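User: Sequence recovery, please. Input:
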């Protein structure tokens, strides 16, 4: 179990399956290269993980500040995971293409987040890392270095911010209509 207060490790755990970072499973097994996963949408619906904050008494929606952190860290982990996946890709097949699309989408979303929260210079630096290595085969060293840089920035964000000063992100964060499922029966909403 991962403490829900460790947003980065929580996000990495989620993305480790939802992105499907296994080339053979996608190219040979025909498995999709991941779902249209976004951390706020998925963590505020059926799978809330918010009982930790109330000592198991209720499973309420995350606070606005926490949703901001989930959103920003989720984008960073999407980028980091995608960069690592493209770096490991060995052939020009669906896996490589889909992972490159994920990276491109994360770069665009982080660029928008950087404009919405200009007081967080780490976002712009993540975008810089995202463009520092070409999304191509046989570029693992540079893509891994970019992913490592993104990882360090995400950790820095989780140590430096708590979401309270990131209200500029609110317009980018998916609303309840995008949440996946509803919290289980018996949970206080």
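Assistant: Recovered sequence (189 residues):
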């Amino acid at each position: 179990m991962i403490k829900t207060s460790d947003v980065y490790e929580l996000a990495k755990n989620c993305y480790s399956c939802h992105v499907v970072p296994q080339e053979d499973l996608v190219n040979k097994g025909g498995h999709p290269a991941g779902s249209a996963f976004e951390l706020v949408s998925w963590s505020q619906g059926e799978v809330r993980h918010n009982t930790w904050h109330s000592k198991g008494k209720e499973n309420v929606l995350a606070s606005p500040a926490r949703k901001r952190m989930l959103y920003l860290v989720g984008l960073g982990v999407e980028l980091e995971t995608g960069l690592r996946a493209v770096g490991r890709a060995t052939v020009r097949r669906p896996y490589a293409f889909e992972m490159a699309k994920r990276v491109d989408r994360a770069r665009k979303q982080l660029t928008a987040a950087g404009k919405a929260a200009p007081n967080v210079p780490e976002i712009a630096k993540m975008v810089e890392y995202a463009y520092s290595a070409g999304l191509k085969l046989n570029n693992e060293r540079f893509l891994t270095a970019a992913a490592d840089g993104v990882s360090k920035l995400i950790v820095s964000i989780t140590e430096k911010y708590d979401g309270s000063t990131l209200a500029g992100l609110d317009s980018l964060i998916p609303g309840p209509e995008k949440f996946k499922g509803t919290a289980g029966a018996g949970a206080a909403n």
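The helical segments are 7-18, 23-27, 39-43, 64-88, 94-116, 121-132, 140-160.
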